[in-house]
Structure formats: C-alpha cells, structure tokens
Amino acid sequence: MLFQATVLVDLTAMAACLWMASYLFARGFPSKVTMRGVILLLALFAFFFGAYNNIFNQVNGTAAWRATFLIIGIGAWYEITLQLLPPQHRKSLLPWTVGIYILGLVAILLLLSTRNAFIGEEGNNLYVAHMGINLPYILYGIFELAACFGLFQNLLSHGRIGMTSQGKFFMFASIFPVAGVTYGIISLAIPNPMPRLYQDLMIFSGVFLMGISVARHQTLVERRTTLQDFPVTSLTILLLAAAYALTALRLGLPLQLVGLLVAFVVLTHSLYDLVREFLERLRIRSDSTFRRRLRKLEGENSTQDTLRQHLEEGLDLLCRTLNASSGFIAVKQGDEFIVTASRHSVEVERRFSSTTMAYEDITQTQNEQFPDIQYFAPSFDGQTQIAVLGIGKPTNRLGYSQGDLDLLSEVADQLGTIVSLSNVQPQLSQIISQSELNASETSFVAGEMIDAMEINPDQEFVKFVEEGLRHLSDYIVLGQSPLADKLDVKAGSHIERGRELQKAIVNSIELLRPADKRPPEPLPRVWYNHAVLHDAYVEGVPNREIMARLYISEGTFNRTRRNAIRGLARLLMEKNPAAK
After folding, report:
1. Domain residue spans in the chain?
2. 305: pLDDT confidence band, cut at 50, 70 and 90?
3. d(C-alpha 203, C-alpha 52), whole Å
4. Strand pairing of 384-392 and 336-343?
5. What dotted CATH number matches 324-449?
C-alpha cells in the first residue's frame, strides 16, 4: 500500500509541477513573481522526477541531487515572498537575503562533493534518506530553517502582507513546505526510517497551492491570465497524462517508464501551448502597434495638403496588416466621392457619385466600378457619410475573419475622425486669423484654451490612471503607484494609501453613472463609459462578455474604453487640483 501511494503521489506531483511551470511561463513572462514561481516548479519537477525513478532504481549520489533541487526550490519560494514586498523593504533585507543564498550555494557544493553524504541509499526506495550528523547535514538544515524563517518574515512583517486578501494565499501555501522541511530534517538524522510519502505529499501540496497563488496574482494584479483558464487547462492536461499512463500500463509498459512517458506527454502539450501563446502575443503586439500608429495619425493636425499623405500611410498600414491585395479611400466633397488614397486599385482623383458609394455598414458586395474590392466600410461624421474605405481580397487566405472585419470597422471610424478634423481645420484657421484683429478677442480665446488645457489630462497622467485601474484590487501596488503621488493621497502606510486611492477611483467611476438604476440590456450609449469601467475593472468581467452586454464590436469596445479612461482621468484632475 505504501508503495502504490508513493508512486501515485510522486507521479502526480511531477506532472503537475511541469505543467504549471510551462503554463505560468507562457502566460506570465516577464513578471518577476511568476518567473520565480516557474523556477520553483521546475526545481520541484526535477525533485519528484528523481524521487519517482528512485523507487525503482536506487543509485548512490542521487539523493544529493534531489536535495540540491529542493534547496533551489526553497530559495525560489523565498524570492517569491520577497518580491511581494515594496522595493525599500527589499533593500533593508538585502544582507539577510544574500546570506541565505550564500548558505544555500555552500550547502549544494558540500552535498555534491561529499562522498556518501547520504548513507544507505541502495535498497531505500520508500523512506527518507539518512545523513550523518556532519557538516553537510548541519548547513543543509540551517539553510532550510533560515529560508523558512525568512519567507514567514516577509509575509508577516513590513505591512503584514501575508494577512491581506492578496497575501493570505501565499501564507497558507507556505505552511506545507515548512512542515515538509521540518519532517525531512528530523527524518534525516533519527535512526528509525520514516516514510517519505508524507514529506513528498506536504511539499507537493505547498507547491500546488503556490502555483495557484501565483496564477491568482497574475489575474488580480497583472491581468495576464484568468482563474478560469488555469484550473480547466490543468485538469485537462492531467487527465490526458493519466489516460496515456493507463493505456501504457495496459499495453505492458514497465511502471518505471510510465513516469518518463507522463513527463514527455506534459512537455509536448506544454510546448504546443507555449508556441500558441507566443504567436498570440505577436498578433496582439502587431494589432497594438497598428492601432497606436493610427491614433498618431488621428491626433495630428491635417490640412488638405497633408490629408492625402496621412490617408495613404494609413491605407498602406491597413493593407499590410490584413494582407489585403488592394484598397482605396474616397472622401466626400459635395455630391461626389473623390479617391484620395489608393493601393493597387482605382487611380487617385477619380470621382464617383454619392449614390454609388453610399453604405450604412461594412458591406461585402461586387461593384462593377471596383472589381478588385471585396469589402466597403463607410466613415461617418454624426449621421453623414463623409468617406468610404475599400479593401480587396486577402493574399494569404480565402477570406477575412471576424476579427479582421472588426479592425476594418475601427479603422473606418478613425478615418472619419481624421477627415472631420481636416474639414474643420480651415474654419479654425479663419477663426484664429479673425481673432488676431481684436486683442480682447484674442485674450478671451487664449483664456478659454488655457482653462480647457488645465483640466485636459496629458498622456502620462492617463497612463497612470489606466495602470491604477489594472491594479484596482491590489492595495500594495496602488499604494506605490505614481497616481497616488499625483493625487497626493495621504495615509499611514502604503496599504492604507492604496485603499484610499482605490476608493477615490471607484467613487469617480460611480460619478460617471447616468442614473441610479441601470436599465436592462442592451444599454443606451449614454451608459457605455460607466459600464465599461465598472464592469471591466470593478467587477472584473471579461471583455468579451462586456461586448456582448453592450452589443458592440471589439473595435468599438476599445475606443469606448480609451474615451472612458480619458474621461475618468479628467474627472480625477477636476476633483484633485494637485494633480494638474
């Protein structure tokens, strides 16, 4: 019974550690906390892999390697709790931290260089390996005790992070390895053999809970993964690994090789998940770059001389992003649409009647005058169509995805903004030239502009507000954020400071509420700003669900969220003059 239980615990722990390490690496890079968690999980995977093989084949010297991986894992565990502290507190603990790492390194060197550091390894497959009361044992024990004391010191001092809603999961997870380490130190020295099943079970329980704690930290603090995704994918991988193991046993594969098979199965699925996540991040980064360049074009002042250049640049960027074979942009002037920018399509300056180019939404149709164009996307200024964007067939696939069409819709909306600004630019220039004739009018206009600029947040402040929203549930990060400094939030500690900042942000979001009672869905447009901020950041609702509630596309959602964050930043500046 002890044999079967030990095999099951080591095999499960090995598979779970390897999967969680690869999952957190794919979802959490380059988070410092997550990278420490990955090192911890990989070290414990190597520990359990060696422990599983030791059940079937005992080799002198392998116990020292397992102890080495355990030292690395405990050191990474200490680093995780250290990263939860504010930077100034980490600096104050620097001598203690360096001492722990030096002690661990010396213990590793002694364990690997001392012959027979562990005694009686051969034939001992189910019990904790024994050590003599010698220098390697003493340093090994001192390191484990010092590291365990240090991680509890990190969690229970300097603001008592381990007692907060975020840190209590790390605190609870750390209890198990401390119990396992204590059990192991006692078992190493006493003459009576003690089953290593209990030590392995306690270490695995702690590591599993630590993996969940790190995933939760990613969700609530850095928003790089979801608590729904982590358990579902982990359960799926473990069930697949179990299915492979049972099938292999039925086909007669030796039990000793089942561990290697399970590790190979988890590793191959992990590599696939890692590549998929990498490609998804490349796509998101490409889309973000594309949108950033479009916003830059939108923010530049456009005259008739520069409008064509901006439109050509935007059209070229869109065609390369969608891999479109051709495209054009036509701007309405009077009763006609004039082609202002073109890429492998109709010639520039060609004119078309307004009835030919009138569309209410993105339309896939065949137009005799545009044989190479597949989709037409209109741009509006209010209810008036002022431009149309045409895109040809994709060059690398049969058709466009829904995400591509959402991006096309977003570009069409921004095209409308650029053309609208270009149309009103001459009027603004005329107003300014007339105002120069009257000094009093000039002073009045300048005063109005200054007043508007005083409550118009700059991009840096908007970025601070957005970062505050992303970390809305984490008092520790909020208390140290630049937004707290900008708003001059006063409190006794950085945690209380973060709590006060969270209250200020949530109260400001509520001020955007149009009425006391929220109407049934679909919500009116006047509710969009409040709904996006409240649902996404206060309630933590996924973006896709918010889009479904509002019946809007991803492009419209992104624009609404940017406008809402800017409006919230303006409101915070109005309520806090010190932020200006």
Report:
1. 2-7+28-226, 324-449, 459-579
2. low
3. 14
4. unpaired
5. 3.30.450.40
